[in-house]
Known about the structure:
Blueprint (H helix, E strand, L loop, with lengths): L16 H51 L9 H4 L16 H14 L18 E8 L2 E9 L1 E2 L5 E2 L4 H11 L9 E7 L2 E4 L13 E6 L2
Antiparallel strand pairs: 1-2, 2-7, 3-4, 5-6, 5-7
Helix pairs in contact: 1-4
Amino acid sequence: MKFVIVDIKNAKKGFSLIEVAIAIVVIGLVVGLSLKGKELIHTAKLNSIVDQVNAFRMAAQMFTDKYSAIPGDFNNAKEMIDSSLENGAGISSITSVSDAKRFWKHLVASGLLSVELINGFPVSKIGGYFSVSTNVGGYEGTWVILSKGTSNNTSFSGIISQEDAYIIDKKYDNGVPSSGEIRTLRVSGSNLVSIGQKYDLKSKKSDCIIMFRLW
Length: 215
């Protein structure tokens, strides 16, 4: 009779089913936490848009109270704030790109708003620029508009999806794209198109602008 000697120390061990299951669970947790972390970061960026707009609103209101004029439209800004500034037209509205850039310059020069201006505009954490315009897309009032950019302060490039716009609108307003203090319009070519009373949450395209009422 022959005996086979097995070297237990050097024998190769395979993974047991329990070890494989544990490894799968750990990998799943890591992936899940990673995805959740990205979602939280993205939500924080969306919330930061509203934080910025609230700072703009406060500064603009303080400016109006102090000078009895709209920033960007103030026709005595050069004389009363800083000699390097350009005066506005004094017509109580913001329409052109020049008007919008003056809006931000007047606020910053007045010391009521501390923000870096890129190409004449503040930027958001999701990208794009904040402009200001009166009567946008058929909506009365003066609005802060977040878009990817504009050449004439009338036509804008899309920056946000309907899904993300809904997250902001639902949390801070009424969740309806065409009413309230927050409005969303879809960009189609050079036109701004109403998306009606409901957001299309299946749409992931960043083809919309989002607007916040100043007054």
